[in-house]
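Late entry, evening session. Most of the bench is empty. Finally got around to the prediction I had been postponing all week. Sequence below, unchanged from the version circulated by S.P.
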Amino acid sequence: MRSIYADSFLSKSSDKAFDLEHRRKINFNIGKYNSVVPVGLSQFDDLERVRELAKNKKWEAIEHLDFYLTQFEEEITKKGAKVIWAEDSEQALNYIGEICEEKKCKSIVKSKSMVTEEIHLNKYLESIGVESVETDLGEYIQQLDGEAPYHIVTPAMHKSKEDVAQLFADKLGTDINLTPEELTLVARRNLRQKYTGAEIGISGANFIISDIGGIALTENEGNARLSVSIPKTHIVIVGIEKVIPSIHDLGLFWPLLSSYGTGQQVTVYNSIISGPRQAGEVDGPEEMYVILLDNGRTELLANAKAREALYCIRCGSCLNACPIYKNIGGHSYDTTYSGPIGSVITPHLRGMHDYKHLSYASSLCGNCTDVCPVRINLHELLLENRRASVVSGESDFSEKFAWKIWKQSSLSRRLMNQGNATIKNWVINKMFKAWTAQRADLSFSTKTFNQLWTAQNKNKAN
């Protein structure tokens, strides 16, 4: 039986695929990305060697994940931070709730973090009476509009400047004719007072640095630095797969992330945070908590073929390269992580039955693999997910029956030669409506393979 998530995906993707205005906005914004990424990548003399090295570093980190996470915990604990291990989103939220209660927290400022979206942190904080304010401009726009992020890197990619101006006018009472620069200043003014009034600042982490016990943050606005340094308490929520072995690896990963993510040679603000404020330091939080989130990641780690997906550094390049994503958009997926990487990992993180359909939402063109900075074989992993869903019994009777008939017919030359092209076309295009509903009709050759082969060899003999 098809899941409700598959039905929702089919409905939303069908609507978006024919929404020409949506497609115009996405093509415009991704087009700008495509124009600057080659400039960022030009800093590498041997890009393929760099990608291979990055993949090897992530292989080392994931294959020895237990060692590197333990080392991280030991090192950052020495500096006064508290490390909390959360098996799932419920545990992570409960820990955050306990911290908020202990600190009598009423207001939180939060920098951009996909993991907080994964555990639906803002919804939880609202339920316990704590205000949570997104400080990344794109996330702030999405929060004002009551929408989830549309893209891993660019949360409001599907909005034009006119859309944002209208949103600010509706929600904040601003002039509808404000320029993007003026709209940014409005957001900045509104957020400044939030930083100083918040009891807790929450961030994710782009990388967990094992050997020094630190987290690395990459951003272009400076909002993450303000979120983690002004409030008295800093909470980090990060997936366990974000670990890298050494601080020396940042010289490799930071430029790769910026080049593939935004087309920059390096992002504007790059920070390493290795604990709360130390003796003699004049700023920073008094306390720091690091929540290491599993939430299905060890299930993915246990899969020898699929664990490669844990190498992902969340640059978003596979989304920008994917012809499916560019047609149906990020919200059609109904998941935190959309596009090719989301289609690979979501069935493992949230259940094969509910999300197996995402692995079929691909042309298997391999463009996602070509642009991945750590060379994850995304299109092969999508195929592996399809195989896994069949092996686990997720195929319904009609699907099994159709493929059985197709297999038997394909293996029998006698059956393949029966009937003329008109009859075959009618059977395929009229009886198998699930195939032709979203595709052009199939058209069989008027001559069978045997007839073509005989004619070709007869011509050669003559």
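Two things to note before I forget:
The longest helix spans residues 20-41.
The longest strand covers residues 233-239.
Will write this up properly tomorrow.
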